[in-house]
Write a structure and sequence with these properties.
It contains nine helices and eleven strands. By secondary structure, it is an alpha/beta fold. It has a single domain, classed as UDP-N-acetylmuramoyl-L-alanine:D-glutamate ligase. The strands form two sheets. A nine-stranded mixed beta sheet has the order 3-2-1-4-5-6-7-8-9, with helices on both faces.
């Protein structure tokens, strides 16, 4: 007869990540991409839905936010019952949701938080209005350990142009003034090689250089990257190492991506893309 050592099982249980983000029916981005990433890398993901979207691989057609109270309640019950080793924020949709999330984070200051600032859809369309962005900066950033904007998102949040690596660093330093670490991704810059720039809370700069994949665009890269980093944060891996591992995972998932629709390719986790993740 097979017996189970439940105490040992509980002690070695997977790290728990609480995802707070919108739903994507294609499963290429949003909560669904977060779930796939964290599960593929051996973590346990919980989900707090902030909005229901109508979107495909080309664009976002409609967004229906969930009430801020319901978002807060989802977070509160998960944190009270299961708990979390890290929290990953994605699309927050409204200023009221930003406020509600900030209140929940303030009540749990010991949980590391990573935020992917989802501000607009790939094919256009605002996903967080001006008031929501202002509250994101003033209320949320002080509770966030790492923010992972791309160039356009950093430009929107800081008001600074992000057209080259020098401006990339300037925008990262302005965001860091709010007390968070910054990973400003470089995929939107025109250089042949991509430079993703990490500025940690201590002011240390870590550039990560990778070869650009030509001839394709991808759905859900920001969600996937932030979720992979969140799991490594939960595992207590030094931030720059966790970012390096997460970027390697993202690159492999992009290489293995699928052309399932008429627009952007969907990332696909494979056995190879898990390289260096099982730590």
């Amino acid at each position: 007869m097979v017996t189970t050592n439940w105490a040992k099982t509980a002690q070695n249980s997977n790290k728990k990540i609480l995802i707070v983000a919108g739903s994507d029916p294609t499963a290429g981005a949003g909560v669904q991409a977060d779930l796939k990433t964290i599960t593929a890398l051996g973590g346990y993901a919980m989900t707090v839905i902030t909005a229901i979207t109508v979107q495909d691989t080309n664009k976002v057609y409609e967004v229906k936010p969930v009430s801020a109270d319901l978002v807060a309640q989802q977070m509160a019950v998960c944190l009270a019952d299961i708990g979390a080793d890290a929290i990953k924020l994605g699309m927050l949709a409204t200023a009221e949701i930003v406020e509600a999330v900030a209140e929940q984070l303030a009540a749990h200051p010991d949980i590391p938080v990573i935020a992917d600032p989802v501000l607009a859809g790939t094919g256009g369309g605002e996903l967080l209005d001006g008031l929501g962005r202002a509250k994101f900066m003033d209320l949320l950033l002080p509770h966030i350990d790492l923010i992972t904007p791309n160039g356009p998102e950093a430009q929107t949040l800081t008001g600074l142009a992000v057209r080259n690596q020098q401006e990339q660093e300037q925008a990262a330093r302005k965001l860091a003034q709010y007390g968070c670490g910054v990973l400003l991704t470089g995929g939107h810059l025109p250089e042949e090689k991509i430079v993703d720039l990490l500025l940690d809370k201590a002011g240390n700069l870590y550039p990560f250089v990778s070869q650009r994949l030509q001839g394709a665009t991808f759905h859900g890269t920001g969600c996937t990257l932030a979720s992979a980093i969140a799991l490594h944060m939960a595992r207590g891996i030094p931030l720059h190492e966790g970012v390096e591992y997460a970027l390697a995972y993202l690159h492999k998932a992009m290489v293995g991506s699928l052309a399932l629709g008429s627009g952007q390719r969907i990332l696909q986790s494979t056995a190879e893309s898990r390289l260096k993740q099982d730590i």
